[in-house]
Amino acid sequence: MPTVITTDKLTKRFGAFIAANELTFEVEKGEIFGFLGANGAGKTTAMRMLCGLLSPSSGAATVAGFDVYTQTEKIKQNIGYMSQKFSLYDDLTVSENIRFYAGIYGMSIPAIKTKTTQLLEELQLQKEAKTLVKELPLGWKQKLAFSVSIVHDPSIVFLDEPTGGVDPVTRRQFWDLIYAAADKGVTIFVTTHYMDEAEYCNRVSIMVDGVISALDSPAKLKEQYNAHNMEDVFYELARNAKRKAD
Amino acid sequence: MKQLITFIRKEFLHVFRDRKTLLMLFGLPIAQIILFGFALSNEIKDSRIAIVDYSKDATTTQLISKIEASNYFDIQRTLATANDLNNAFKKGNIKMAIIFPANFGSDLTHTGNATLQVIADASDPNQATTITNYFNQIVADYNTSLAGSPSAAGTAGAATAQPMQIIPEMQMLYNPELRGAPNFVPGVMALVLMLVCTMMTSVSIVKEKELGTMEILLVSPFKPIYIIISKLAPNLIISIVNLFIILLLSYFFLDLPVKGSVLLLVTASTLFILTSLSIGLLLSINAKTQQAAMMGSLMGMMLPTMLLTGFLFPIENMPLPLQVFSNLVPSRWYFIIVKRVMLKGLGLTAVWKEILILSGMCLLLFAISLRKFKIRLQ
Amino acid sequence: MITLDHITKTYNKGQFTAVKDISFEVQPGELFGLIGPDGAGKTTLFRILTTLLLPDQGRAVVNNFDVVKDYAKIRSCVGYMPGRFSLYQDLTIEENLNFFATVFGTTIEENYDLVKDIYQQIEPFKDRRAGKLSGGMKQKLALCCALIHKPAVLFLDEPTTGVDVVSRKEFWDMLKRLKQEGITILVSTPYMDEANRCDRIALMQKGSILSIDTPDGIVKAFPEELYAVRSSQTHSLLREVRAYDGTDSCFAFGDSLHVTFKTGKSQDLLPYLKSKGQTDATIQPIEPGIEDCFIHLLKG
Q1: Subunits touching B (CB < 8 Å, at least 3 pairs)?
Q2: pLDDT attached to residue B174
Q3: Domain boundary, last residue among B145, B173, B201
Q4: For all residues of chain B together, what is the average pLDDT?
Q5: If we measure between CA atoms, which residue out of B76, B22, B34 comes closest to residue B51?
Q6: CA-nearest residue of chain A to C252?
Q7: Which tops the pLDDT comparison, C183 or B40?
Q8: What is the model's pLDDT at position B154?
Q9: Which pLDDT does position A68 carry in this prediction?
Q10: Lateral strand order in the sheet of A211-216
Q11: Where are the domains of chain A?
Q12: Do residues B232 and B358 share a domain?
């Protein structure tokens, strides 16, 4: 399997504060990679570096084959991003949102049209194509936001707590979408506070105090920490975290 | 009471920890005064003027060459008739016209007195005063040189003998009273105080709504009136400090002291500040975001203050509906008070009516905002 | 301690119903949880009970005071931590706490023993501004602020949302101690796994209550037999089990699938899976969790 994310001692310092310390890991193509960590552990900083939004202080990393120091524009072309806070434009309709995001990634007008029809079909939103996004239930919005974030067929998609506040059924439907995307070869890089969702990942890394303190498949991690579930693993690793501020 | 003091203290902490806003708050009046100050004190060079000479004698030629020699004026000789002048003024091609009547020179030598006519475009009153003053200076110099000349037989100049005199007759077009010259200081005062008070108050209340802290405050036994008072207190003090900054700047920098009673001026200003604070309070009640509050204060308050106060555009020249409407703008009355007290040195007897109107507005606005201030969420 | 009697609240002039005909009671000293996703109407209920909103219909009583008539009295005896509460970012921990103490007419010293356990955890950072704190610390500070006047009833709207597992655990431990002090607590959360920490819970969805009971009672009311199905290939397993015609419902739960079957179809699953190549699949009956019950109630 080819790797799509490679980092080598990736570090970010803010003055004397080391937000992310010598992160070294690889993510394979089509993998669902869970990126967990306590609040303030440095997850957001690491994610921003990988998305080309923040320049690292030292170390190396490539995302989709592009360097995070020099090729950030290329990286942005090849990744998708979705967070719980930012989803879609509330005052645009469903199809206008799709058209807009496809448009900013430079897709051609016929391609946008086919893609829009295809997406609406996949999400069973054909009837809602002309509905304003603000009138959709939250769960639908999140699913739509995810589909929009991969509208330009990126090789990696970064999901920052995508299922916060969503009901349990929709949450699972959301993961169905993630699986489907992963099957198509899209690499999923996801953060979450739901520990059962950590189990759905192929591999999970857990950051504590700016370093990756564990990285393996959920099964191996549970074995290693002699734990019932990922929640116990996480608790074991993060409870002694020193860092209390973001 | 202790609750109130703690709350007010908290408000001050917010203000002092937000350096950028603080800088803006105190920078605003200083920048305004300096800006307007420069606009006023700047020398005006090469103003285009017209000279119409019906006399064409030695005296007028001499005088014209003196005008030409100064670098204040750029003479457009092509204008020969009154009609030409009229058109040139309307198009803004010339700022001033000097008309020497027929027999100007002979009048001067025979009667010792000659009159010339000066017409200035006073739509920009500052400029009009400045350039007519330049011209008067040239004429005065010429008068002195006439007085000192041998033909006057005098020795020491103007005081001893009755010298020959040229008397310029001034005529200001469009804005005969030359309103505006020192008017901008009262104007800036009204503008700055209004802006700071309404904007700061509405933004600081809406900020708590956005943060979610307003919910807690409402659910606490803390009385809503206390919230209002503590939001107003820091802005009241900041505005009074601002007031003194403006007064000091205009005294030292613009040579514009308070001619009347400082106490009266400060009292009237406090009244105006309270009125503006109440407006800010009113704005905050319906605004949901800080941006909305800010836009509301800028569009809703700044424009009327600039346009309908009378310091940029004379209200008498406005259409009647606007004149009537301007009566509702608090800064209009404050502007009158400041002008009378600060510039003309008049006392309470001259401004009691305006103070009464302002007090009425203040009470009314405060009462409305107090009534409308919500004790629950929408 | 808290009584809701047919409470209904609509927004946009009746176009949108936030909560519909809600009735329940919370006993003194009880830790009561409102469990449900965003849009369930939890926040609306909190705002009605804390006198911030007027209900359209129905009556509510908190600590023997009517939420409409006696709002001033309620305001002095309840503590409230709104969902988006984020304190004054530009004030330090100590300044924030001092401020809220004074607003509620008390001092930190007066009720220090109540907040001591929580406050001690953040005290080393007391001169740090609230904007510079992590989610867990902010949450602790916010709880201190809501507790500082020793309220009879504590309303906590999604206090653990967006907070990591460790802080969430600590937070629920704190609530347990507060309950021992005799404070009645109404708390909401979107995390189903936190339901077991409550004495009683109401499962909510789209403005209505699906079920009210103790966590045990809710689990016992689960009408079907639930099985956990596992294999090394969870993802393909999910597809296969869904395709199986005896499957009634199938949802992923961490490393296993929770499956209910049409009557008598559970035995035939393993052979079916083997025929599809899932040779290491196992099946065992399990006790449902709150989340299983919630999913079941959503279907119903």
Answers
A1: C
A2: 56
A3: B173
A4: 80
A5: B76
A6: A172
A7: C183
A8: 38
A9: 92
A10: A79-83, A156-160, A187-191, A32-37, A203-208, A211-216
A11: 3-86+156-238
A12: yes
Residues 6 or more apart in contact with residue B310 via CB below 8 angstroms: B326, B332, B335, B336
Domain co-membership, B10 together with B50? no
| Same domain flag for B223 and B339 | yes
For C158, the closest chain A residue by CA position comes to: A165
Instruction: Say if residue B183's pLDDT is above 80.
Output: no
Per CB-CB distance under 8 Å, the chain C contacts of B18 are 90
- Average pLDDT value for residue range B212-228: 84
User: Does C51 sit within 8 Å of B220, measured CB to CB?
Assistant: no
pLDDT 10s digits, B91-131? 777 888 888 888 888 888 888 788 888 888 777 776 777 78
Position B156 scores a pLDDT of 39
Domain range enclosing B67 = 43-173
Closest CB from A139, A179, A231 relative to C165: A231
Given an 8 Å threshold on Cβ–Cβ distance, is A246 in contact with C132?
yes
pLDDT in tens, A12-59: 999 888 999 999 999 999 999 999 988 778 888 999 899 888 899 999
Show the tokens assigned to B232.
Answer: 């107003």
Residue B129 lies in a domain: yes
Structure tokens at C20: 């519909």
Instruction: Inspect the interface and report whether the beta carbons of A239 and C166 lie closer than 8 Å.
Output: yes
C235 and A175 within 8 Å at the Cβ level: the answer is no
Q: Under CATH, what is the fold of the domain A3-86+156-238?
A: Rossmann fold (3.40.50)
Partners of B222 on chain C (C-beta within 8 Å) are 103-104
Q: Is A219–C295 a contact, with Cβ atoms under 8 angstroms apart?
A: no
* Band of pLDDT at residue B173, cut at 50, 70 and 90: low
Inter-chain touch B219–C52, beta carbons under 8 Å:
yes
Same domain for B290 and B319, yes or no, is yes
Name the domain boundary from B173, B190, B217. Answer: B173
- Nearest by CB to residue C53, choosing from B13, B14, B377, is B377
Chain C positions in Cβ-Cβ contact with residue B7 (cut-off 8 Å): 99, 102-103
pLDDT of C63: 93
Q: Measured between CB atoms, does B20 come within 8 Å of chain C?
A: no
Question: pLDDT tens for residues C88-107?
Answer: 989 999 999 999 998 888 88
Asked if residue B17 and residue B164 are part of one domain, the reply reads no
Percent of chain B clearing pLDDT 70 (strictly above): 86
A78-112: per-residue pLDDT in tens? 999 888 766 688 888 999 988 888 888 888 889 88
Minimal Cα distance from B14: which residue of C?
A: C90
Give the integer Cα–Cα distance in Å for A146 and C266: 35
Whether the per-residue pLDDT at B213 is higher than 60: the answer is yes
Q: Which residue in this structure is represented by tokens 């119409």?
A: B52
| The pLDDT value given to residue B157 | 38
CB contact under 8 A, A246 and C163: no
Q: Which of B4, B8, B219, B227 to mutate to test the interface with C (most CBs of C within 10 A)?
A: B219
- Show residues of chain C in contact with B207, CB under 8 Å: none
CATH number, residue B69:
3.40.1710.10
- Asked whether residue B162 falls in the same domain as residue B284, the answer is no
Instruction: Work out the percent of chain A whose per-residue pLDDT is above 70.
Output: 97
Identity of the residue in B6, B222, B376 whose CB atom sits nearest the CB atom of C53: B376
Three-state SS for A121-175 is: HHCCCHHHCCCEHHHCCHHHHHHHHHHHHCCCCCCEEEEECCCCCCCHHHHHHHH
Rounded to a whole number of angstroms, the distance from the CA of A24 to the nearest CA of chain C is 23
Q: What is the mean pLDDT of the segment spanning C114-143? A: 88
Structure tokens at C237: 């397993």
Structural domains in chain C, sorted by start: 2-220 (3.40.50.300), 226-299 (3.30.70.2070)
ipTM above 0.85, yes or no: no
Q: What is the DSSP letter of B299?
A: I
Question: Based on the domain organization, do B107 and B152 belong to the same domain?
Answer: yes
